[in-house]
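Incident review: delayed structure delivery

Summary: a single-chain prediction request sat in the queue longer than the usual turnaround. Root cause was a stuck worker, restarted by the on-call engineer. No data loss occurred. The affected request and its eventual output are reproduced below so the record is complete for anyone auditing the incident later.

Affected input:
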Amino acid sequence: MKKAIQMVILFLLVSGMGYYAYKNTARASVITYESDRDAADYKKTLDSIRLIRKALHGKSQAEIAKTFTHQLTDNIFPYWYGTDWDFNGTTQKPNEGSIACGYFVTTTLRDLGVNINRVKLAQCASEQMIKSLVLEENIERFSNKSIQEFEQALKSKGNGLYVVGLDNHTGFLHISDEGDFFIHSSGARPFKVVKEKFSESALLIKSKYRVVGKLSADRKLLKNWIKI
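Output delivered after worker restart:
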């Protein structure tokens, strides 16, 4: 009897370790799922972005758009990589607690300086959230398109940053000369905020309906972003 109990305990331990290893192993499409930043520096980074926004007054829309994209992809997202995903996650601090996909979108935009209601938008259907962020002229909808057709359609619109709504998910798409990427709080392995290859993302591939709003092309959003 004692030996049987020991075997059960050993089985449970091994199973638990196996699940933990599985959960924290990234899919092949994932490029980044760990942060290389010190979370303690996050506030300083946000303060520096505020100063950068002030300096953009009077600059062209193209320069503002480029800066907007750079600050989000290179100075905010890196802090959030590796933050745990949870369907009900609402953390406002990178790598502390957990965050749902919608809250990841609205929290990072809010931290960048976009004037939005973080909670209200995060709880909207993704298409409604996108319509609240950008003008209709910067929104496009795709039904039953292959991932290759979808990617090519966005590339034809030029480099920049998009917010995307899928059948049951949301996140950011970054189209760039260095590659095309999907940045999101992933409810699939490794269940963290990740950066993955656009064309290999299972969530992007499987979604039958995709709606995208090009943040970096929206004149109203950019104009409001530099208002301080």
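Verification: DSSP finds nine helices and nine strands in the chain.
Action items: add queue-age alerting; document worker restart procedure.
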